[in-house]
Design a protein that fits this description.
Order of helices and strands: HHHHEEEE
Helix content: 25-40%
Radius of gyration: 13 Å
Number of strands: 4
Distance between the termini: 32 Å
Strand content: 35-45%
Shape: globular
Strand order of the largest sheet: 1-2-3-4
Number of helices: 4
Structural class: alpha+beta
């Protein structure tokens, strides 16, 4: 069963760090396997691009949650300065806390 409250807390911390440009905090929310995909300044470059595409995050809400094979998938209806964005987070438990294992964003018309 997915822990909706804990999942929302991770997503909230992600958006706060994203808006602040706090790439160290964003990196700390990522799973080890995801961090390994972007060594060095790769995390900052990848997540800075989100702000460049959409502007600052202004709010959002849960639009779906599922749990399968130890992974929690969150569909998030986000609002950014340039309009609505569909975000998809895959969370895994690692070291006793939820970490972002995958993130995708797609601007909605």
């Amino acid at each position: 069963m997915p822990d909706e409250k804990a999942s929302r807390a991770v997503i909230d911390r992600f958006h706060v760090a994203l808006n602040a440009g706090d790439w160290v905090a964003v990196d700390g929310l990522l799973s080890q396997s995801t961090r390994n995909l972007r060594p060095g300044g790769g995390t900052a470059r990848a997540f800075r691009a989100i702000i460049q595409r959409h502007g600052r995050y202004t709010g959002g809400q849960l639009s779906g949650i599922s749990h399968d094979d130890g992974r929690t998938t969150i569909a998030w209806s986000a609002r950014y300065e340039r309009g609505p964005v569909s975000e998809l987070f895959v969370l895994v438990e690692e070291g006793g806390s939820l970490k972002i294992d995958s993130y995708t964003d797609s601007a909605r018309p």
